[in-house]
Amino acid sequence: MSSAVTVRDVMTRQFVGVSESDGVVETVELLLAEGAECAIVLRGREPVGTLSERDVLSLVTGDADPASATVSDVMSEGVIEVPSGESLAAAAGTMGREGVRWLLAIEDEEPVGVVTAHDVVVASTMMPEDDAGTPATAATDPAAEYDTQGICEACGALARELANANGRLVCPNCREA
Fold first, then answer.
1. pLDDT in tens, 36-56
2. Domains along the chain?
3. Closest CA to 160 of 143, 146, 173, 174
4. Whole-model pTM?
């Protein structure tokens, strides 16, 4: 992964922020509506925790009533922060070490976005070279590898050289038969 790509380049700038007193059901509805993976729990402007699907699942499988539960009842305390200017590779390393799937991006001690493991994966497939200068393993256009190939109508093989034979597109092997 290129060290030139930073958290700022790939982070989601708008994130779901909730308070500890918000209801869990309402927060889950907000997460679903926003398509977000987690909510950052704020006390005023200070991030104090996160609420994820794992936290909600622990509530559902426990004895508590989800309808009356508040975010503070199920949230994970603490937020792992990363400077928005940090390299994406370093942020991915932090996620791995800490066992988390997202980090809160910070600029001037203020939250400015969230970077997720999904963001890291998507960004890594878009990079033409890694730090070693070798081509990335994922193509930027997956269809490009197959755009000059077709399927032989006789044998079903994938072939680059199809020709019309009696109204059917066939590969060189089927033309000879």
1. 989 999 999 899 999 998 899
2. 7-126 (3.10.580.10), 148-176 (no CATH)
3. 146
4. 0.66
